[in-house]
Write a structure and sequence with these properties.
Bound molecules: phenylalanine, zinc ion
Protein name: Aminopeptidase N
Distance between the termini: 21 Å
Number of helices: 27
CATH class of one domain: Mainly Alpha
Mean pLDDT: 97
Radius of gyration: 28 Å
Strand order of the largest sheet: 6-5-9-3-2-12-15-14
CATH architecture of one domain: Orthogonal Bundle
CATH topology of one domain: Neutral Protease, domain 2
Function: Aminopeptidase N is involved in the degradation of intracellular peptides generated by protein breakdown during normal growth as well as in response to nutrient starvation.
Low-confidence stretches: none
Helix content: 40-55%
Keywords: Aminopeptidase, Hydrolase, Metal-binding, Metalloprotease, Protease, Zinc
Strand content: 15-25%
Shape: globular
Structural class: alpha+beta
Pfam family, one: DUF3458_C
Family: Belongs to the peptidase M1 family.
Length: 859
């Protein structure tokens, strides 16, 4: 076995495609084992007279090829394993190719494949070349016309992009359908789905008065479980009209849910394809976290229609142009649907856990990189989440009104085009008259800037001097960094509230601000920095514990209040894990419990206050990182909190859960607090906790509480909750999404042995990404003490599975391997074991996607 090392693609090598594809006519004769694809391209030369026509194509069996009706002689073209090259072509011509592909053999889930006996496609970023020969790059935009035929009994519903046209019967029980997409699009937005579905239908009237037919296609029997996704879709459509003035632009909008899918969902024009995990939900089978994820992903894909589809990326280096912007849009949608501060805190938890870790490790890259090894590996927290933060900073710096003006100009100026980050910022330069050159460094420099804050109170003059310094650490390939503009919302606080509030943009390496306080201020005020987490930075402050406790009490910004608690909690976990302190500090636990009880009127916020940072969030705090010690310390603090809150918990759980069930924010908040109490019961020293949890599990009326109770019960029983786990399995064995939860619950609470048992379970399926992730990613990302076990047992448990998954599905294999990105900062034993594992994997033979991750991790 040989591991292929991918060649690097460079942004600076960009050249426009030398031909325009004016029209694409596709004919699909669908058959799982042998699908025929006929492609007719109307081509016109736009580049040099001598340019050859080079079309991407992978794994295609070419059956015929002709230009303007003339079959091409084999000497006129060359077919490699990646391309079809025709050296000499006229300036304008029609190219027809016929190829054959085998969807049933497609385990990579890229291109045309089968899922649950149905056809579906995934073309971003480079799947279309696995369907037919084509310039498979986002800057080639064309109008697509699709004719498709399949066996009518097995595949009664035939879908593609755009609007439906003629349908009819054929011989041998086959039927056909025509779809036309009037909007020019790049090939990565092409989609085709065919099969037998149950359909949940609705309609929407746009602000222009157009009537849109909405339909969500799901597994037989699942239609009612699409109701929340439909509701989310309609709210997204309204929100984009009201917030950005953008309406939907086709007569139909289709969603198809598929079980086997590499990512969350895909924004294909007029035909979004979703991982079924992000479509199907009802109170019995889905948790509030699922409902929330569905709402935001449905919105995300819908918002792509303008930010991604109508205006797309010139090349894949510009991925954040559509992803960062669209994440920013979906985060704001969710904030409008729910509680803005709670949404912000959740977004920051995610950013810190995933993006900060990525930015600090060997896989660090800039939001708009200038090279990549494998494009599939560029769908990262940095491109998505940090990309979203950059738009947030832009909006804060110029204000909502100019932001909206700039967006309007962007939509107007670039509609129908494939553009760059520079084009995007030009629109904002034009509406503000400002220069964003320095700001765009955020797109070019990897690494999380660290801002150090120093304060100096001068009692004689009632002045406070605040010095801010920034420094971005070196990252692979970028040893030296320049200062970036960092917008910081600031405030000065005393016991009464805000003394002052302002925004500082830290543009240079450092700045000193002097604020004069009224004579009545005799004590140094508290300095509140980066309120609402205005900038994606790490703050470095040497405050005393007393100052931090005062901060918890005095903060007027909900994000910073939560963060003040987090900072104290992190310090406590570190102290406990390093043995400098044997037991949790009672004053801290009391303060924490007090903050929770005080927030009871905002139960979602109270629930967040009880959430202790995960082990992984602690890795960046002090190195080398000892996952086992951190986990033990975290648990100690958690059980002390459980003990302190036992009365509050009994009271909270003693009330009935809200009924009838509603997935909206209000009820979800109440359940979040109840669930938080259930989590604490899992580590409670109280002798009756296990029985209480068993009762909560048995009597739960919704999956949120049932799953939380089962998990906490498993934790409380030290993994010996077999009977309850068996009960859950017996109830849900026929529901794959619920079974994913059953697998994940055990993978996150068990050890290496658990992983082996789960992988040997008959329902473990290497071909289903959700199932593989529910075991492997759940274990490697959410059970760090077991994954990073010093004896290497955690690594061994997943090694074989990852290798096998990678053989079938490189995108999946590579994604799973990112769990190793932090190996270098681990304590020596785990570090050595992780390195040995990575080297073994490397020599075992990996896909080029996986090899790219491993090579950079070892780098
Ligand atoms: N473009 C998709 C999204 O952000 C993500 C995706 C990428 C899905 C690649 C599939 C393949 O919504
Ligand atoms: Zn997206």
């Amino acid at each position: 076995m040989r591991t292929e090392t991918p060649v690097s693609v460079q942004l600076s090598d960009y050249k426009p495609y030398p031909f325009e594809i004016e029209q694409v006519n596709l004919r699909f004769d669908l058959d799982p084992d042998a699908t025929k694809v006929r492609s007719e391209l109307k081509v016109r030369r736009t580049g040099g007279a001598g340019d050859a026509l080079v079309l991407d194509g992978e794994g295609l069996t070419l059956r015929s090829i002709s230009i303007d009706g003339q079959a091409l002689d084999a000497s006129c073209y060359e077919q490699t394993d990646k391309a079809l090259i025709i050296a000499s072509v006229p300036d304008a011509f029609t190219l027809v190719t016929e190829v054959e592909i085998a969807p049933s053999q497609n385990t990579a889930l890229s291109g045309l494949y089968m899922s649950g006996g149905r056809f579906c496609t995934q073309c971003e970023s480079t799947g279309f070349r696995r369907i037919t020969f084509y310039p498979d790059r986002p800057d080639v935009m064309s109008a697509f016309h699709v004719w498709m035929a399949a066996d009518k009994a097995t595949y009664p519903i035939l879908l593609s992009n755009g609007t439906p046209g003629e349908t009819g019967e054929l011989d041998d029980g086959r039927h056909y359908a025509v779809w036309d997409d009037p909007h020019k699009k790049p090939s990565y937005l092409f989609a085709l789905c065919a099969g037998d579905y149950d359909v949940y239908r609705d309609s929407f009237t746009t602000m222009n008065g157009d009537e849109i037919a909405l339909a969500i296609h799901v597994d037989k029997g699942d239609a009612e479980r699409a109701a929340w996704a439909m509701d989310s879709l309609k709210r997204s459509m309204t929100w984009d009209e009201q917030t950005y003035g953008r309406a939907y632009d086709l007569g139909v909008f289709n969603i198809v849910a598929v079980r086997d899918f590499n990512f969350g969902a895909m924004e294909n024009k007029g035909l979004n394809v979703f991982n079924s995990a992000y479509v199907l939900a009802d109170e019995a089978t889905a948790t509030d976290a699922d409902f929330e994820a569905i709402e935001s992903i449905v919105a995300h894909e819908y918002f792509h229609n303008w930010t991604g589809n109508r205006i797309t990326c010139r090349d894949w280096f510009q991925l954040c142009l559509k992803e960062g912007l669209t994440v920013f849009r979906d985060q704001n949608f969710s904030a409008d649907m729910r509680s803005r501060p709670v949404q912000r805190i959740k977004d920051v938890i995610r950013l810190r856990a995933r993006q900060f870790a990525e930015d600090a490790g060997p896989l660090a890259h800039s939001v708009r990189p200038d090279h990549y090894g494998s494009i599939d590996n560029l769908y990262t927290a940095t491109v998505y989440e940090k990309g979203a933060e950059l738009i947030g900073m832009l909006r804060r710096m110029i204000g909502e009104e100019l932001y909206r003006k700039g967006m309007d100009l962007y939509f107007e100026r670039h509609d129908g085009q494939a553009v760059t980050i520079e084009d995007f910022y030009k629109c904002f330069e034009d509406v503000t008259g400002e220069d964003f050159t320095q700001f765009r460094l955020w797109y070019a420099q990897a690494g999380t800037p660290e801002v150090t804050v120093e304060e100096n109170w001068k009692p004689e003059t009632h002045e406070i001097e605040i010095t801010l310094k920034q420094k971005t650490p070196a990252t692979p390939g970028q040893p030296v960094k320049k200062p970036v503009p960092i917008p910081l919302e600031m405030a000065l606080l005393d016991e009464e509230g805000n003394l002052a509030e302002w925004t500082t943009i830290l543009e240079d390496e450092d700045v000193t601000l002097t604020m004069e306080m009224p004579d009545t201020v005799t004590e140094p005020p508290l300095v509140s920095v980066n309120r609402d987490f205005t900038a994606p930075i790490r703050l470095n402050r040497s405050l005393t514990r007393e100052q931090r406790l005062a901060m918890v009490r005095m903060e007027t910004d909900p994000f910073n209040q939560w963060d003040a608690v987090q900072t104290l909690v992190k310090a406590e976990i570190l102290a406990l894990s390093e043995g400098s302190q044997a037991e949790p500090d009672d004053a801290l636990v009391t303060a924490l419990a007090g903050a929770v009880e005080q927030a009871v009127d905002d139960p979602a916020f109270a629930a967040l206050l009880t959430r202790l940072p995960e082990v992984g969030e602690m890795f960046l705090e002090r190195q080398p990182a000892d996952a086992v010690a951190l986990n033990a310390a975290r648990k100690k603090l958690q059980s002390a909190l459980a003990a302190k809150l036992s009365g509050f918990s009994a009271e909270t759980l003693g009330k009935p859960t809200p009924a009838p069930f509603d997935p909206g924010a209000e009820q979800a908040g109440i359940r979040a607090l109840r669930t938080a109490m259930i989590v604490l019961l899992g580590v409670s020293p109280d002798a009756g906790a296990a029985d209480t949890l068993r009762g909560l599990y048995d009597n739960a009326t919704n999956m949120t509480e049932r799953l939380a109770a089962l998990r906490a019960y498993t934790v409380q029983k030290g993994g010996k909750a077999n009977e309850a786990l068996a009960d859950f399995e017996a109830t849900w064995k026929d529901n794959p999404l619920v079974m994913d939860k059953w697998f994940a619950l055990q993978a996150t609470t068990g050890d290496a042995e658990t992983i082996k048992t789960l992988a040997a379970h008959p329902a473990f399926d290497l071909r289903n990404p959700n199932r593989v992730r529910s075991v492997v990613a759940a274990f490697t990302m959410q059970n760090l003490a077991a994954f990073h076990a010093p004896d290497g047992s955690g690594y061994q448990a997943v090694e074989e599975i990852i290798l096998k998954a990678d053989k079938a599905n490189p995108a999946l294999g590579a994604r799973l391997l990112t769990a190793f990105e932090q190996w270098r900062i681990l304590e020596p034993q785990a570090k050595a074991a992780a390195e040995a594992t990575l080297k073994r994997l490397q020599s075992a033979g990996l896909s080029s996607n996986a090899a790219d991750i491993v090579a950079r991790a070892l780098g």
